[in-house]
What we know:
The chain has helices at residues 15-23, 45-56; strands at residues 28-31, 62-65.
Amino acid sequence: MIRVNGYRIAPVDIAESLAAALRHGARAAVVTSRALNPTGASVSAERASELRAVLAEHSHVLVIEDDHFSGVANTNTAPDVSRNPPR
């Protein structure tokens, strides 16, 4: 999907870097919300909120959330980065 659509991979690790990448023309963001390699860390609710705030300013950006660990996780859900969580 990435190559077919002409996307380039540009890993970023914090909301500030994501914002910079989006300002420079990034058209998609892939977010792995839990079981990050190599540490197994997960996106916290606070970090998810920061990422949502950045993404809200770029409604044209395709957000792909990769929750590959959902089938074996001990928690019901990972923080949802692509939209505001239900209240």
